[in-house]
Design brief:
There is one protein chain. This protein has eleven helices and 13 strands. It is of the alpha/beta class. The chain folds into two domains: 148 residues, Periplasmic binding protein-like II (D-Maltodextrin-Binding Protein, domain 2, 3-Layer(aba) Sandwich), CATH 3.40.190; 145 residues, 3-Layer(aba) Sandwich (D-Maltodextrin-Binding Protein, domain 2). The strands form three sheets. Strands 5, 6, 7, 8, 9, 10, 12 and 13 form an eight-stranded mixed β-sheet that branches. A three-stranded antiparallel β-sheet has the order 3-11-4. It has a two-stranded parallel ribbon with strand order 1-2. Helix 7 links the parallel strand 6 and strand 7. Helix 2 packs across helix 10. The longest helix is centred in the last third of the chain and has 17 residues.
Length: 302
């Protein structure tokens, strides 16, 4: 187990198990993960299939299923702490989550969701193509989920952020021009444009800009199942070692990275204060390297 996992498990064995009975994950016939937020929400297919492969690597026979209900972020945290209705999810770190759950600090998408392309209405492309600085871009209101970790990053940077709790409602709000830009990860933008342009023919992926927010996605495991966390981490490390992790990553994301054309975009970097000091930035092989596609990064806010 890597040092991040050992530290996390030590903390939880010493603290959380005072109030929770650790349960053997071998008692689980099904391992329950997050339910997508609507029929058009395909964001979790990559991590759900990755979880199945990870468990197979460790000889785990339990199936992976989706939760019966979708939850607000606050309710989801409470459900995960208890571990009865849902045991593991893949999400970006949020305040309190790394302390109250067991984080597996291996970025599941190599951080590419932190490269935020902008969904816009096509009539706004001309104005956005003239953006030269972060200040220029902040003149345009932007949309976000009200409980997304990126919302606080954008607000702290100085953006006017218009929010909704409902995923699909945000696309309707963009169509109605409640805001001008809607930042989506490289892994999300093109699929969402294809899906939601059926209702909004003006919906496009903006062509010239990108906002970079350091944004790992981790598996978070209920503290009721520390052995499950050990198995997931062991499976991920084995997949990284034998190359199957990168194979899975490329199968899902290579086309999107090529379409994103990051080398020809202005990329504005922001600081993510939601991340802990244990974020594994020193593990360069865990992260997508923008230099590999010729992308040039700015300093924070410059």
């Amino acid at each position: 187990m890597c040092k991040f996992g050992r530290l996390a498990l030590a903390i939880f064995c010493g603290v959380f198990f005072l109030s929770f009975d650790a349960r053997a994950f071998t008692q689980l016939d099904e391992i329950v993960t997050l339910k997508p937020r609507g029929e058009a929400d395909n964001r979790y297919r990559y991590v759900e299939e990755l979880l199945r492969k990870v468990l197979k690597k460790t000889g785990t026979n339990a199936s992976v299923t989706q939760a019966a209900s979708d939850y607000s972020r606050d309710r989801l945290l409470q459900e995960l702490i208890v571990g009865e209705n849902i045991q593991v999810i893949a999400e970006a770190p949020k305040p309190g989550w790394e302390e109250k759950l067991i984080p597996i600090r291996i970025p599941l998408r190599k951080g590419i969701q932190g490269f935020r392309l902008l969904l816009i209405n096509k009539q706004d492309q001309k104005a956005l193509a003239e953006v030269e600085s972060l200040d220029d871009l902040m003149a345009f209101p932007t949309g976000s989920g009200s409980q997304w970790s990126t919302r606080t990053v954008m607000e702290e940077a100085g953006f006017e952020v218009i929010t909704s709790e409902d995923y699909e409602t945000l696309f309707r709000m963009l169509q109605l021009r409640r805001f001008v830009t809607f930042g989506r990860g490289v892994n999300e933008a093109f699929a969402e444009q294809a899906s939601f342009s059926r209702k909004n023919p003006n919906l496009i992926v903006e062509e010239t800009l990108c906002i970079y927010i350091p944004l790992p996605t981790y598996f978070f495991v209920s503290p009721a199942y520390p052995e499950l966390a050990e198995k997931i981490e062991a499976g991920l490390l084995e997949m990284i070692e034998d190359g199957s992790f990168d194979e899975h990553f490329r199968a899902f994301h290579q086309d999107d990275l090529e379409r994103a054309n990051l080398a020809n975009r202005k990329i504005f970097s922001l600081t993510n204060t939601n991340l802990s000091d244990e974020t594994p930035f020193e593990q360069s092989d865990y992260w997508f390297d923008p230099a590999s596609v010729g992308a040039v990064m700015t300093k924070d806010g410059s």
